[in-house]
Every structure is written in C-alpha cells, then in structure tokens.
Write a structure and sequence with these properties.
The protein is of the alpha/beta class and about 425 residues long. It is built from 15 helices and 18 strands. Strand 3, helix 3 and strand 4 form a beta-alpha-beta unit. It binds 3-isopropylmalic acid and iron/sulfur cluster (SF4). Its cofactor is [4Fe-4S] cluster.
Length: about 425
C-alpha cells in the first residue's frame, strides 16, 4: 500500500505493517520532552495517575528554557519541582538552565532521529520533523499518560506536501517562504495535516533553514512539519547520535496526499503583521514602520546561520538609538560558535544586548517585554496580541536579515 512518511512512521511505532489517514493508532513513543513551563503540570498529572516510576527514564528529556535563569519566585519553584522529579525518576537526559531552547537542544544533542515519534509539551515540537521524525506537541495530561505507559494514541493525519521550487533571491530565506505559505493558506489552512516540505528549494536548504520551515507548521494548524532525510540530514546527525534509524519517504501516489506547488523565484522578504501570523505581506508594503525593539532569536530563527546573516548586516554599523535589540542564541552550542566566529563582538559593538540562550521575549514571560503602544520586530513565530508583553503592543515577524537591517534604521527595512 502506498503511504505518506507520516503514515509509515506511525504504522511502525504502533507495530503495524500499514495504516492510513483517519485511523486511530496506539504509538510507542520514542522521545518525550517536557520543559520548565509545562513540565510541572505534566508531573502533577502523572502523580495523580498513581504510578510510581516513569515507563522509561532514558526516553524522557527534561529541559529548562522558558524562564532561565528564574525571573520570579514561581519560576524558581517550578525549577526546584522539576529537578526533584528528574532526580527521583533517574532521568539522565536533563538540561538545566544553561543549554537553550528545547527545539534546538534536542536535535543538537542527538535526541531526534529519523523515523521516530517525538512528543513534547510544546506546540513547536513540530520543528524536529526537519530530521525526518514524526514530532508533535501534546498536552500536559497526555504527557502524564506517556510518562506512565510510553504510549499515546493518534489519529493518523493526512499530508499536505509543499513542493517548493525556484531559487531564493538575495536575503530571502526559509522564514520568508513559510510566512508566504501561511499567508496564502491561512492559520487554519493545514489543520491536523502533516506538513511536508519538499522540492528542490527545500533540498538546497540547510537543516537549520528546514527547521525554521517545520517550526512554523503549527502556525497553519499542522499536526507536524516534516522533511525527507537526505545527505544534509545524515551529515547533521553525524557525531550527534550513533542510534540506528530508518528513513521513510512519502509515496507519490499515497491516497491521503495533497500537493501544493510553491514557486519562490520572485519571492520578497515577508513580514507577518499584527496580530496574526497569516497576515503576511511583502516587506516593501510595510517598510518605514517605526519599531521600538528587535528580537533576534527563538526556536524559529535563533540559529547560527541567522546570527551570521544578522552580523554580516550589522558589521561596523550602529543600531538606531530609538531601538533596543536583543540577540538571544537558541542554544549554548550556537552561542559558543557565535563567540568563536566573532559575531558577538559585532552585536555588542553595534549596541545590541546579548542574552543567555532561552526563549526570551518570544512568549512574553521572561526578559524583554513590550510596554503599551510599543512595536517589536521579532524573528520568532507568533505575533498574537499580548504575545510579547502588553496587549497594546504590536509584534511584526520577519527573518534575521530584515530584523538586522531594521535595527539599524529604526524602522522596518528591506535588507536587500
Ligand atoms: C509554553 C508553551 C506551552 C508554548 C507552546 O506550546 O508553544 C510556548 O513555547 C509558545 O511558544 O507559545
Ligand atoms: S522560543 Fe518561543 S516559540 Fe520557541 S519554544 Fe520558546 S516560547 Fe515557544
């Protein structure tokens, strides 16, 4: 039977030969991730089930990233509570305050491999599908059941495959591609679909750029984002994991597959305007909009290539005195590489604030919040009302290149 990548992975994880979209399968979970913000709820629910020990401590990853270092007594208490859980359950895959954002750290540390089922109590767990896994966000009570049993049921999703063709122009990136797709199909355009990204443009992208595509799958309602395994995936995995893995591909004649063709030859840098991610416009339509803060970071665009692009633009320049710019590398590994490459000197000399790897202002719970009437330009993935602080603030989303060029001018700027 012809199947999609999502169907093949879910069939394998449920011990079935085949399955099809719409079926309910009981999957064996390969990786279960929780963090400082949703972890306490997951653990409290787990404790209510009454099972003493988690099903397999080696398959659980606990990580602190949303409020690190603790910015409130509540955050500190959450951290203490989670450290006690990790200790009691013998969970070795524990990353305390220093490592960075979960969706960057898990792939980096080799926890994500092709063909496996990864669940996390965070909606952007779909990012990990860039390595050919089936990865999705789940609720804290679902995670409690995973902790207890190692299993979770899924309705097998249909697949929408974005065949991306054409050559990206100068200073046009995967973030622009995915914002444009979301603008076209809407925030509910791929509801409960496995969003697979393919075509020659995707093949030419780095794993990092593919992660930005998959990261945004949830912003069009997707159950997961996915990219087929290729040489770049294999190179990425090298030195990170020795675990054997299976690479699955979507059969072109699979019943549950819909294809959307996207040509990027003439694509301009895109901006998602307040207060919805699907309110995407070409930068030329919004350039000149004054901004108060620029946030370069997050699980969407806080990776080394993003920092490199931004540093190239900021080199020898000064950030506008009307703007605060926050640079937050997505992980310690990226921070280290950025230091080695001299990127941090460029940011500091330009007048940016460099913070420790964490989620930062992305969801308005930690550093760098916006006041009423303020405007942020952010490389993250959501611009909902109140997302980065005051409900009277506005958030625009863009690539790292637009963010850097705009920081210099103090207004939304076309980096080209
Ligand atoms: C805190 C967490 C539940 C949340 C998510 O699931 O996405 C956060 O990471 C976000 O980006 O809004
Ligand atoms: S960086 Fe933002 S989107 Fe990513 S996990 Fe953190 S809060 Fe969520």
């Amino acid at each position: 039977m012809s199947m999609t990548m999502a169907e093949k992975i879910l069939a394998k994880s449920a011990g079935l030969k085949e399955t099809e979209a719409g079926n309910i399968v009981m999957a064996n979970i390969d990786v279960a991730m929780t963090h400082d913000l949703t972890g306490p709820l997951s653990v409290e629910s787990f404790q209510k089930i009454g099972v003493e020990k988690v099903w397999d401590p080696e398959k659980i990853v606990v990580l602190f990233d949303h409020q690190v270092p603790a910015d409130s007594l509540e955050a500190a208490q959450n951290h203490i509570f989670m450290r006690e859980f990790v200790d009691k359950q013998g969970i070795n895959n524990f990353y305390d305050v220093k490592e960075g954002v979960c969706h960057q750290v898990l792939p980096e540390k080799g926890h994500v491999i092709p063909g496996e089922v990864v669940v996390g109590t965070d909606s952007h767990t779909c990012t990990h599908g860039a390595l050919g896994a089936f990865a999705t966000g789940i609720g804290s009570t679902d995670m409690a059941m995973v902790f207890a049993t190692g299993k979770l049921w899924f309705k097998v999703p249909e697949t929408i495959k974005f065949e991306i063709e054409g050559k990206l122009g100068r200073h046009v990136y995967s973030k622009d591609v995915v914002l444009n797709i979301i603008g076209q199909i809407g925030a509910d355009g791929a509801t409960y679909q496995a969003c697979e990204f393919g075509g020659e443009t995707t093949s030419n992208m780095s794993v990092s750029q593919r992660m930005a595509l998959c990261n945004m799958a949830i912003e069009m309602g997707g159950k997961t984002g996915m990219v087929e395994v290729d040489e770049k995936t294999i190179q990425y995995l090298k030195g990170r994991t020795n675990k054997p893995y299976q690479a699955f591909k979507t059969d072109e004649d699979a019943d549950s597959l819909t294809t959307m063709y996207v040509n990027v030859n003439d694509l301009e840098p895109q901006i998602a305007c307040p207060h919805h991610v699907d309110n995407a416009k070409p930068v030329t339509e919004v350039e000149g909009t004054p901004i108060d803060q620029v946030f370069l970071g997050s699980c969407t665009n806080g990776r080394l290539d993003d920092l490199q692009v931004a540093a190239e633009i900021l080199k020898g320049k000064q950030i506008s005195s009307d703007v605060r710019m926050l640079v937050i590398p997505a992980s310690r590994e990226i921070y280290r590489q950025a230091l080695d490459q001299g990127l941090m000197n460029i940011f500091v000399d330009a007048g940016a604030l460099v913070c420790n790897p964490c989620c930062g202002p992305c969801l308005g719970g930690h550093v760098g919040l916006l006041g009423p009437g303020e405007v942020s330009l952010s490389t993250s993935n959501r611009n909902f009302k109140g997302r980065q602080g005051s409900p009277e603030a506005e958030v625009y989303l863009s690539s790292a290149a637009v963010a850097a060029a705009s920081a210099i001018k103090g207004e939304i700027t076309d980096p080209r």
